[in-house]
Structures are given as C-alpha cells and as structure tokens.
Task: inverse folding
C-alpha cells in the first residue's frame, strides 16, 4: 500500500521534547506548573490580549464561555451553522437552544445580513439571544467587523470561535480577540498542537480567573475539598503545555508553510474551470489551515467532489467533505435556523485537500496530478 497522506498531521519542531522532558524531570505533570503559565503568557502575547486560560479543548473553552455569559436552560444562542459540532454542542450542555445562521459565499462564514434577520426575528418572538458564537472556518476570517457591529448594536455578547484560525487576522488584529471571549483549539490536526487542548482568552480578567477556577473542579479555598459551584476537569496539563510552548516557537513558520501549500493548489487549479476557492475578505489574512475547494460538477462534465475524494482515497490520500451544516444534523432537528442555501451548496460541492505543513512538495504534486487527471480524463471521455 502506498504511504498514507494525511489531511493535516501534527508537525512538531525541535523544542517540544525538551519542555516535556523538563516537566518529567521536575515532576510537574498535572494541570499546574511553569509550562502552563508560560504557554498562557505566550498565547496572550502573540494575540495581544490580556488574559488566557489553557484548557483541555476548544469545546471546553466554548462551554466555559457560555457559563461566564450566564447562558442557562431556556436561553437561545446564535451560532454559525456551517461549522464543526464542537462549536454548538456546549449550547446543549447548558440546556439552551442553538439558533443557526447560514454562511455568505465569499468567506463561507456567518452571513451578516442573516445574523441581523435572526436577531430581529428572535426578539420579535420574545427571545433575545443570550450570546452569539461566530466561527472563523478553516482559518478564514469571517466578516468580523460587520458581525461585531450588529452584535454591539443589539448588545449581545460574542464568543469568537477561532479554533482553526490561530494566527489569522483582520485589519491587523488577531482573530479570537474581537469578541468578548475568544477560543482556540490545539487538537492534533490544528496548525499547532498540544496533542489535545484549547484556550479561552479575553480582556476581562475576572472571567479568565473564574474560568480557571471552574476548569479545576471549582475547588473553594479551604484546607479540605470544599465546593460551592459545579466544576469541570477542563485544565490543560503542564506536559501538554510544554508541547504548546515549543509549538508557539514555530507558529509563524507553520502559517507560512500552510499558505505556501494553498498557493501551490491555487496555481495548479487556476486553469480548471469548475474548481474554485474561498476568498479572504478585504483586510483579512487567513492562516490557510486547510485548503478547501468547490467542485462544480456542471463545469466538469459531471465530476463531483465525491468522485475526486474517492480517487484520492484509492491512492491512500485523505481528503474530506466540507462540514455538513448543523441545521441539517439529526441531533439539532427542530432548532431555529436562518438559511440561504449557501452552506448546503458548500457541503454538496466542497472538499478539504491535504494541507499539512509537513507535506512535501512532491507529495502535494502527487495530489494535484491525481485531481487533474480525474478532471481531464472525464472531459476527454465526454
């Protein structure tokens, strides 16, 4: 069998193992220690934001953000529909109701016009949303200036899901720092990893202090174990934070490498009518965590994104359809949604291509050739 080509595999540098060994040598292996504090400082400094809590996952960060904003049973929270379920599952943890908003066609992120429509309609129905979760999908900046203006107009707090967008920015300001609270993910497939992990950031010091308290089982100050709040086991370990410290040292290089991967795909498919890409909004900069394409079967003699995916799979190359919108997921059946059909088209026609920063140019050229051959052979046959 040919060597496996992963969609986005971990890419470690040279310093991570040193920090991990240091954690072992000093016996700081639990969710407390110098690496944890240093990793949080590095994240805060890089993103130019005041406070940071390193956590076990991006999903945990969203859950704590909802708690900090007072989301409770019966509340409604607006969320991007075109996203991973981790963006909206925490709404259900709080026994609240997700309200899904569709995408616009340029960046594939939340549509500002539909956001306004959703807010106005929910208020008219007597349910002003308690929060808005805005997602920057695949590292692409949403039209965050427009979305934040609407949120501020209606005085609704924003949780900014930048799980896939560490290092992306809009008008020079890092994504994850526009909202009242921002979150990142360091899962194994992200642009940098802590093996599994996430972070919550904010300019509100009290919120981050409370997040750390809740993330460590909400233990009150006492010589015994005293609890006056429900807590969670959401803190990142000092070992994982050591990996994160090493990864932060190569983050800018990883962004450069991911963007180079995107440019090679863009140049290779530029002449193929029927393969298109999403675009950075004016003033936006994407880390291009994953390169994603739309496959227009009408312009490719009937070739679909699924046929291309299967061609790659046969060669042991991992690719993946774009996210199935949350408003179409069985688990969220019946949730209010404000849609335009954009995300459904994206799901039908979209494909994530192998985009790892450790993928060689030769391997990428192999992927490009297979996609090109599939399209060309079908056109010739037609």
Result:
């Amino acid at each position: 069998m040919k060597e496996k080509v992963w969609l986005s595999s971990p890419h470690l540098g040279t310093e991570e193992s040193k920090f991990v060994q240091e954690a072992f040598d000093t016996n700081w292996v639990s969710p407390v220690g110098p690496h944890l504090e240093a990793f949080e400082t590095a994240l805060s400094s890089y993103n130019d934001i005041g406070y940071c809590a390193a956590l076990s996952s991006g999903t945990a960060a969203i859950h704590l953000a909802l708690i900090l904003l007072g989301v409770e049973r019966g509340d409604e929270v607006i969320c991007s529909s075109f996203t991973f379920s981790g963006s909206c599952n925490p709404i259900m943890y709080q026994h609240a109701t997700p309200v899904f908003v569709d995408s616009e066609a340029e960046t594939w992120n939340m549509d500002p016009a539909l956001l306004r429509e959703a807010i106005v309609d929910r208020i008219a129905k007597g349910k002003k949303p308690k929060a808005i979760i805005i997602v920057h999908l695949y590292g692409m900046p949403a039209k965050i200036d427009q979305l934040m203006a609407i949120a501020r107009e209606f005085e609704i707090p924003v949780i900014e899901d930048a799980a896939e967008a560490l290092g992306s920015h809009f008008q020079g300001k890092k994504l994850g720092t526009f909202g009242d609270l921002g979150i990142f993910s360091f899962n194994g497939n992200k642009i940098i990893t802590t093996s599994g992990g996430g972070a919550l950031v904010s300019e509100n010091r009290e919120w981050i202090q409370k997040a750390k308290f809740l993330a460590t089982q909400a233990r009150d100050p006492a010589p015994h174990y005293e609890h006056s709040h429900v807590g969670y086991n959401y803190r990142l370990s000092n070992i994982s934070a050591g990996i994160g410290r090493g990864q932060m040292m190569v983050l800018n290089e990883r962004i450069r490498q991911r963007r180079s991967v995107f440019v090679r795909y863009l140049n290779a498919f530029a002449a193929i009518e029927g393969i298109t890409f999403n675009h950075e909004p004016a003033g936006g900069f994407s880390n291009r965590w994953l390169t994603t394409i739309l496959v227009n079967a009408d312009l490719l003699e009937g070739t679909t994104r699924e046929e291309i995916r299967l061609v790659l799979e046969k060669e042991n190359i991992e690719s993946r359809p774009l996210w199935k919108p949350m408003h179409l997921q069985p688990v969220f059946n019946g949730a209010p949604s404000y849609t335009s059909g954009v995300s459904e088209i994206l799901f039908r026609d979209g494909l994530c291509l192998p985009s790892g920063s450790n993928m060689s140019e030769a391997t990428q050229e192999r992927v490009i050739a297979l996609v090109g051959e599939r399209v060309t052979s079908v056109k010739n046959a037609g």
